[in-house]
Amino acid sequence: MVFLAEWWDLRDLGNAVGALLEWLGDHGPDWLPYTASAIVGAITILVFLLVSLLMVAWLERRLLGRIQARMGPNRVGPWGLFQSIADAIKMLTKEAITSANVDRWVFWLAPLLVAIPAVVVFAVLPFSEGMILADLNVGVLFVVAIGSVAAIPIFMAGWSSNNKFSLLGAMREMAMLISYEIPLVLALLGVVIFTNTMRMSGIVAWQDEHNTWLIFLQPLAVLIYFIAGAVEINRTPTDIAEAESEIVAGYHT
Fold it and tell me: Peptide bond before 237: cis, by omega within 30 degrees of 0?
């Protein structure tokens, strides 16, 4: 197995995966490399998401603790690093209670569907050279479309719960979708015009070829995208869809 015998030449994960797929293509059936690439890509995305979510959540809580003159998470694991894991276990072991008047199938389906766009969007993001699950020639359009689809399960959750606060939160989410989608697309349009491609790997290659980052060429577009992104993920102060002080927790109720 060449990809193991010459491990010192595998300078990054992309080379390792490429060598593995090449070996599978030489020693296995034709369908095996395609199946293996999809499995490896899915595992890579899930591992990256889980690790990054744990670290970002821990970092945010520690930072907020400092700002508010308190310690933040510091009990579970070293420096509280495993606090997010403990919280996840606590949430998963809670009793599942469904109200009598909800649309049961839609109510249970919404939380499952809302996580799919967040994972699928990583399929077009290049992690390294050759390390991209789906190198679409319309990658930018795919990201925008998937981001828009994410609002549908949220509305399903609000409507199916038969709760006025949940429905108000879901309606606010749909209204916000119209508000932030246009500036978000316009900010990304500048990137497409600069690089003359909507392929995500092509955008990265353009920056490498010109030895610069587009963040320096379009600082205003970056600011617009940052604000629109904060609205899309319901971060304060644009969290009106789940405002605890007004509508309990919006579509989470």
Answer: yes
